[in-house]
Amino acid sequence: MVTKLSMVIPIRKGSTRTLNKNTRPFTPDGKSLTQIKIEELEKVKYADEIVVTTNCDEIENQINKVKKTNKIKVVRRPQELCLDTTLVKDIINYMPTICCGEHILWLHVTSPYVKAEDYDGAIKKYFEVLENDHDSLMSVTLHKQFM
User: Fold this and answer.
1) Which positions of the chain have pLDDT values less than 50?
2) Which pTM value belongs to this model?
């Protein structure tokens, strides 16, 4: 792969459903969802940069405690893009302004069990589907039960 790929993680302060979900201790050793995700993403082979966009000082502090490479970049997100009423399309339009990659992998810290090899596999698959005239890849889980 010669094209640049950016991994982007939007982490907003002020979750209303689960208070401090991204910063409070999640593991027995006290690491948060944010810290777990950063440590795992630094192992991903196929990402040129990892951009965290946030409006939260605590997120930035936690990232600085665990990051080991210069691959991680924290970008302060404008407050108008951090509201409960912010439209997803506005965030989507914002992402390319803070990344250097031609391709963007958007992910969340709320999936702590996804490993570096899972991301590397998805990135490889993404570039395969591009060769077959598709322009995106999304992971889903098949449920065969009444919901």
Assistant:
1) 1
2) 0.86
